[in-house]
Design a protein that fits this description.
The complex is a heterodimer. Chain A is α+β, with helices and mostly antiparallel strands. Chain A has one domain. Chain A is 36% helix and 25% strand. Chain A has a six-stranded antiparallel β-barrel with strand order 1-2-5-4-3-7. The model of chain A has no long low-confidence stretch (mean pLDDT 89). Chain B is of the alpha+beta class. Chain B folds into two domains: 277 residues, archaeoglobus fulgidus dsm 4304 fold, CATH 3.30.2170; 30 residues. Chain B is built from 14 helices and eleven strands. A nine-stranded mixed beta sheet of chain B has the order 1-9-10-11-7-6-3-4-5. In chain B, strand 4 and strand 5 form a beta hairpin. In chain B, helix 1 crosses helix 7 and helix 4 packs parallel to helix 6. The longest helix of chain B has 39 residues. Classes of the chains: A alpha+beta, B alpha+beta. Chains A and B meet through helix 1 and helix 2 of A and strand 4 and helix 12 of B.
Chain lengths: 198, 395
């Protein structure tokens, strides 16, 4: 399923609720906040589906020293960005899993293993997975994450898998689904709907 | 974890240490103006007379010999070449441990080639070698390889890494940097018992320096926070009347001062001092091989400001290579507070961490088990593990 795609990183730590991947040099667009991704587990029988909610690059004393330098040479900049062992880390929230050609909108039976390759979800996979709004459940259930921004990014991405004349309808339906979860907090709902407007 | 040091016991000793350090600093500050004045007087005395006094001072005298540059001369920062390859190398080692599962030592050399002026990402590398043959471990004498000998072997490996990369840059302006002086100190320290194996190492070290020379590159050793007082030793002869030079007993009136303090007030950022010749006996071996070691002081503009840079005579006498070394080091010190960036990176690539060492020892244990052996730490090492791996009890 992922044979034609390049992995966007490898798992460094994980649980059933999410996983952290690391990549040496990010592509301009991957990984990105709100991007859908997947990683195999259970010897390839299951693919855990995730939504990237955080990207971070750790620093060290040398990076801090160089950041304050007046004259950073092009070579030192290139060295820091391509050679030094400071990977970009991205965290993904588990939003379901795929097994035997079927999507499940609950936590997977097992987390992926360390160093398992993480792939971006193709447009058709995003389309099929987000056809049902059940994928919102695990996002709303996430604790201490930027849930509203994540919802906005995920729904907008899902809408882009539809023909242009169907996107508005998808976004309206997604907004309705979110309203069910956010009925007690209309300010949050209003902000979310505003972020979904084309 | 409970601490082993009983700090109340140390309190009075630490206070005394601070007091003595303050006294030394005051003493050095008192002597410094006289030393500064002596540089000017050295010029007035003239190179011929100073050389004569050095000769009269005899073998016990320790200090810098003169180069053809005047003692008080100061050189401004030359322009940096549009393109300059800068290579740095540094090494680290695991010494043999008779308490470990197997007897070996390991040398890891980190290196980096920066093609300054091209914008290309530098080329980092690290190369490790493990030594376990009886010849490596016991050498000619049958004694287990000493830390000093292994360190010298590491110095040779660093110079070899520089030579290899310098040959890759054939015909291009290139400098090679080492994080230390260029003299192989083991050669000076070794007694007669180890002379043969030390001579072999020294010959190999000099051969690698010759490779760098043939490649057209320059080589320099960068000494951060130097403690040497070689130039002060020379200046002491300025005060010593001609007839008394022969009676000099190796001590001098500037004891407690360092050359670093002397040049901190004389050199502006980017400037270098005159060159001097290292008077260590081992430099004779280097001179015989065509690599007489000279040095100068350089204001890198960083926190420590004054560094000592050692170069072979063939770099010293080539104005173009001197400019590469001078401008190249200053350029590489700009972002790292006065210590060359390639050496920062080479160290990072070379260092063997505790985690690296544990992983390597696990590899060795696996290899032993596959051959039917039962690797075991000594009981002493095992008990150290017991006491060194306390875990915090979490509620």
């Amino acid at each position: 399923m992922n044979a034609s795609q390049e992995p966007i990183g490898r798992v460094t730590r994980c649980s059933t609720r999410g996983f952290v991947g690391a990549v040496r040099l990010p592509e301009p667009d991957l990984p990105a906040f709100g991007a859908f991704c997947s990683v195999e587990t259970q010897h390839g029988k299951t693919r855990v589906l995730g939504l990237i909610y955080d990207l971070s690059i750790e620093d060290d004393e040398l990076a801090r020293q160089m950041a304050t330098a007046d004259e950073l040479s092009r070579e030192q900049l290139a060295d820091a960005q391509t050679n030094r062992q400071v990977p970009l880390e991205f965290s993904a929230l588990t939003i379901g899993y795929a097994r035997g050609g079927t999507f499940h909108y609950t936590l997977p039976p097992q987390p992926p293993l360390t160093l398992a390759a993480i792939y971006p979800l193709s447009e058709s996979e995003i389309h099929n997975f987000t056809e049902r709004f059940d994928f919102l459940t695990l996002i709303f259930g996430a604790d201490r994450l930027p849930v509203d921004d994540l919802l906005g990014a995920a729904i907008r991405q899902a809408s882009l898998t539809y023909p242009e004349n169907q996107r508005q309808a998808y976004l309206i339906q997604a907004g309705r689904e979110c309203a069910r979860f956010m009925a007690a907090d209309l300010n949050r709902l209003e902000n979310l709907i505003r972020s979904l407007q084309i | 974890m409970a601490m082993s040091l009983r700090f109340p016991q140390l309190l009075s000793q630490v206070e005394s240490l601070g007091e003595i350090a303050a006294r030394r600093a005051a003493d050095a500050a008192r002597k410094l103006p006289f030393a500064m004045q002596a540089i000017d007087e050295a010029k007035q005395i003239g190179a011929a007379e100073l050389s004569d006094r050095i000769r009269r001072a005899g073998d016990r005298w320790r200090g810098a010999h003169l180069s053809e540059e005047a003692v008080d001369q100061v050189f401004d920062l030359p322009p940096h070449p549009a393109h300059l390859n800068v290579i740095g190398a540094d090494g680290s080692q695991i010494h043999p441990d008779r308490h470990a599962a197997a007897l070996y030592f390991l040398i890891n050399v980190g290196s980096i080639l920066i093609e300054q002026g091209t914008g290309k990402p530098p080329s980092p590398a690290s190369e490790a070698a493990v030594f376990y043959d009886d010849d490596d471990l016991y050498g000619d004498t049958g004694e287990l390889a000493s830390a000093a000998w292994i360190n010298a072997k590491r110095d040779v490996a660093e110079m070899e890494a520089l030579a290899r990369l310098a040959e890759d840059c054939l015909g291009q302006p290139t400098i090679c940097l080492l994080d230390n002086g260029l003299l192989l100190w083991l050669a000076l320290q070794a007694g007669d018992q180890h002379r043969k194996s030390v001579d072999r190492l020294l010959a190999e070290y000099l051969r690698q320096m010759s490779r760098i020379r043939t490649s057209g590159a320059a080589v320099a050793g960068f000494v951060d926070r130097p403690r040497s007082a070689d130039v002060l030793g020379l200046l002491a002869l300025v005060l010593t009347p001609r007839d008394e030079a022969a009676a000099t007993d190796g001590s001098h009136p500037y004891r407690g001062l360092t050359d670093r303090a002397l040049f901190a007030d004389r050199l502006e950022p980017g400037q270098r001092s005159a060159r001097f010749v290292d008077s260590s006996p081992v430099n004779r071996d280097f001179e015989t091989a065509g690599h007489q070691i000279q040095f100068f002081y350089l204001n890198t503009g960083g926190a420590e400001r004054i560094a000592r840079v050692e170069i072979p005579g063939w770099v010293a006498e080539d104005p173009m290579k001197m400019d590469w070394v001078h401008a190249g080091i200053i350029e590489q010190c700009k972002t790292t507070g006065g210590f060359p960036y390639p050496l920062v990176r080479a160290h990072e690539l070379a260092v063997v961490t505790g985690a690296d060492r544990r992983a390597f020892e696990t590899m060795i244990e696996g290899a032993l088990i596959r051959r039917g052996l039962r690797p075991r730490l000594s009981q002493k090492a095992q008990t150290k593990r017991w006491t060194g791996s306390r875990r915090r009890h979490r509620l």
